[in-house]
Each structure stands twice: as C-alpha cells, then as structure tokens.
Write a structure and sequence with these properties.
Layout lengths: L1 H41 L3 E9 L8 E6 L3 E8 L4 E8 L3 E8 H7 L26 E8 L5 E7 L4 H14 L1 H5 L6
Antiparallel strand pairs: 1-2, 1-7, 2-3, 3-4, 5-6, 6-7
Length: about 180
C-alpha cells in the first residue's frame, strides 16, 4: 500500500514538472516574440538581451536590451528595483569591435572583462574550480567622444549562439568592415 502511494506521488510530481517545463518554454517564447516586435518597431536588424556588468558606472546586473540599428547600437538598461530605463547610444563609427568571451579565455589573456590585467588572481577570473561554468561576456570596444578607447561588458548572455552571431553582425556592420578601409590608429 505504501509503495502505491509513493508511486502515485512520484507520478503526480512528474506530471507537474512536465507541465511546468512546457509552461516555461511557452513563456520564454512569448518573451522572445515581444523582443522581436520591439526590435522591429525600432527598425533594428538584430537584438540581444543580456545583463550589464561594467563600463558605464551604473547598477551591475541590470537587465539590458541591445538593438543593432543601421547607424548605431541602442542600449536600453533597466533598473528592476526602480523601474527606470536608461538609453545609451553608440554610433557604429565609434565601435572598434564586439566580442564574446568566456572567463577562461580572458584568464588565458591575463585580463578581466574590462581589459585590466589580472593581478594575483584578485579578480577571481581563472580561480574557479574546473567543473564550475563561470561567466561569459559580451564586450563592446568603442571610442568615446574624446577619442579614448573604452569598453562596456555584459555578463552571462543567456543565449550563447545568438550572442555570438550578434557580435559577428555588429562587426560586419562597422564602417571599416563595410568599406574595407583600415581603422586609423
């Protein structure tokens, strides 16, 4: 009798879990559709949703939607605590590159996500256990209005392949890539 009750409970749990997974799949698809609609309304050729890491001096971990427009990137950064949205724009002519890098790749280069040298392992990059996944970063390198090289980093992009394709699309949209002229250093 006890085995029957346990079996029924396990089957019930399994059914609930399957229903939850199906609901999550539909919810994620609906969220993706909303972003596609927002991107189309803005005239964007592509978009990605990520979490802000560093480079602008705002709250780390803020949800960010990045839209690739014909002449610029539009960053819409949401502070979920205050419900405020800040818009930042970077002209494509200012962008030097967009990169997708893992902590492991950055550690091999001896740098953190912001391009600073790792000194004594203080940043924590490269000090994780082998079986931990670590963070991945979308990094945008650009020249600011004074011509100084800067970078903005976003971490743990949830869709790795989409984020990598987004970086490639940005890089192929840069004026130097389109015209074939070298970047003046």
């Amino acid at each position: 009798m006890g085995v029957l009750i346990v079996s029924c409970l396990m089957i019930g749990f399994l059914i609930c879990f399957i229903i939850f997974c199906i609901w999550m799949a539909f919810s994620l698809k609906a969220g993706e559709k909303k972003l596609e609609t927002k991107a189309a309304n803005k005239g964007a050729t592509d978009f990605v949703a990520v979490y802000y890491f560093d480079g602008l001096g705002i709250t780390r971990g803020s949800y960010t939607e990045i839209y690739l427009l014909s002449d610029r990137l539009l960053l819409q950064i949401s502070n979920l605590q205050t419900n405020n949205v800040q818009n930042f724009e970077i002209k494509l002519s200012q962008i030097r590159s967009a990169e997708y890098k893992s902590e492991r790749q950055l550690a091999k280069e001896g740098k953190n996500a912001m391009g600073y040298p790792i000194v004594g392992g203080i940043s924590g990059i490269g000090t994780k256990q082998k079986n931990e996944l670590g963070n991945n970063y979308l990094i945008i390198n650009y020249s600011d209005s004074q011509g100084e090289l800067k970078r903005i980093a976003f971490n743990n992009p949830p869709k790795v392949i989409k984020t990598m394709k987004f970086c490639n699309k940005i890089n192929s949209s840069l004026p130097s890539a389109v015209s074939g002229t070298p970047i003046q250093l």
